[in-house]
Amino acid sequence: MKTKDRIIHGALTLFNENGERSVTTNHIAAHLEISPGNLYYHFRNKEEIISGIFDNYAKELKTRFQPMAEDQQSNMPSVQVMLSYLDSIFELMWNYRFFYANLPDILSRDDALKLKYTKAQQALNENLIAIMHSFRDSGLIDLEDDELQALTKTLHLVASCWINYQTALLSDNEITEAVIYQGMLQMLNVVRPMATEQGRKQILELEEHYKGRL
């Protein structure tokens, strides 16, 4: 692995374990057993490292939430399709939890990163709406277009803010996998009242799946 990539991955580990605010570039260099000068050769400051981490995150967002092709989705049970998207949400929230936990502060320090974040979220929202349309076409939900867009925005909001909200509530500020699984259940609880009979059965199945992870 190239040194630049090692710095990004090492920083991500430290940020997730200790919180971004408490980690300095010297901490990152020491963790990787490289000199601070070697680190500064690749990144001028911590903000550039965070921006590099975000670029990887944005690529994953784009890849994981591409709407499936109709023939691909038709060959998979709807519950499996939903599970694959929910698992992607979980993995992103867990793997980049420092970013979710301290998002407003991080974006307030870097206008260029804020612009990249905004563009990534706009693209994600378009993909999420397309995914929700496919669920409607599969008979899992029965909503008008404006209702579908409102539901998508609510789910997007829960996923984006769940860790930040839980961090504020937890006395030790430690985000565990169980905390994120609770977020998955919260999203399913939002969708269940709006689902068709067929969709409700599958959502209940998914709820049992995630309850087993707590």
UniProtKB/TrEMBL annotation:
Top-level taxon:
Bacteria
Which residues form the DNA-binding region?
Answer: 24-43
Q: What is this protein called?
A: TetR family transcriptional regulator
Which Pfam family, giving just one, matches this sequence? TetR_N
**GO MF, one example:** DNA binding
Record flagged with keyword DNA-binding: yes
Domain named HTH tetR-type: residues = 1-61
For this UniProt record, give its keywords in alphabetical order, as a comma-separated list: DNA-binding
Q: Which PANTHER family match?
A: ACREF/ENVCD OPERON REPRESSOR-RELATED, TRANSCRIPTIONAL REGULATORY PROTEIN
Give start-end of the signal peptide. Answer: none
Q: Which residues cross the membrane?
A: none
